[in-house]
Design a protein that fits this description.
This protein has about 200 residues and is an alpha/beta fold. The protein folds into 2 domains: about 100 residues, Formyl transferase, N-terminal domain (Rossmann fold, 3-Layer(aba) Sandwich), CATH 3.40.50.170; about 90 residues, Formyl transferase, N-terminal domain (Rossmann fold), CATH 3.40.50. About 35% of the residues lie in helices and about 25% in strands. The protein has an 8-stranded mixed sheet with strand order 3-2-1-4-5-6-7-8, sandwiched between helices. The chain is globular, with a radius of gyration of 16 Å. The two termini are about 30 Å apart. The structure holds 5-O-phosphono-beta-D-ribofuranosylamine. The site of 5-O-phosphono-beta-D-ribofuranosylamine has 14 residues, from helix 1 and helix 6.
Length: about 200
């Protein structure tokens, strides 16, 4: 069986990209084909190059306000790599429904909360402020609504006394690095059914 080609979109350090890329070895049914960032300074680009993964940058700033024009450049860069799957991994740009529709069913995202709770930003501070006992992360299929698509996997932890938004973010990130590769392997193998990590 030919391996699935996976493009990974990042905006920053790319720790989730590293976890995904390093998981795609041996009998894994997928391989990374591109790491693409909207930020030429993203630390993840060097990590991808060090792994021999093709990289591309499509800076969003020249397209200020014109999302479709930015996304046309994204699409051109992606089409060159011919991905079967796209993983958003710390990619911090909102995507229009037009772009999402083009890749729907083949695009995943990881979000640092137990969706449907806390869509959007500042998820750790919000979970703390709400006095939640549990928190975690979710991998979902990307749909036009932000952080709203079908859930493909979740990992959860117990919020500890004294946890701050920073300590929580660090603990959730460790779960993300376990959850995202597990979900990607399932999806690439054509397996359905959510992955649950407690
Ligand atoms: C992290 O806050 C993570 O929770 C979210 O994106 C941010 C950056 O992740 N998914 P990464 O280190 O760039 O993968």
């Amino acid at each position: 069986m030919t391996e699935k080609r996976v493009a990974i979109l990042i905006s920053g350090g790319g720790s989730n990209m590293v976890a995904l890329a390093d998981s795609m070895t041996g009998d894994h049914p997928a391989r990374p084909c591109l790491v693409l960032s909207n930020n030429a300074q993203a630390g993840g680009l060097e990590k991808a190059r060090a792994r021999g993964i093709a990289t591309a940058v499509v800076d969003h700033r020249p397209f200020a306000g014109d999302r479709p024009a930015f996304e046309a450049e994204l699409t051109a860069a992606l089409e060159q790599a011919e991905p079967d799957l796209i993983c958003l991994a710390g990619f911090m740009r909102i995507l229009t429904s037009g772009f999402v529709a083009r890749w729907q069913g083949r695009m995943l995202n990881i979000h640092p909360s137990l969706l449907p709770k806390y869509r959007g930003l500042d998820t750790h501070a919000r979970a703390l402020a709400a006095g939640d006992a549990e928190h975690g992360c979710t991998v979902h299929e990307v749909t036009p609504e932000l952080d709203d698509g079908p859930i493909l996997g979740q990992a959860r932890l117990t919020i500890a006394p004294g946890d701050t938004a920073e300590t929580l973010a660090a603990r959730v990130l460790v779960l993300e690095h376990r959850l995202y590769p597990a979900v990607l392997r399932n999806v690439a193998a054509g397996q359905t059914g959510p992955v649950v990590i407690c």
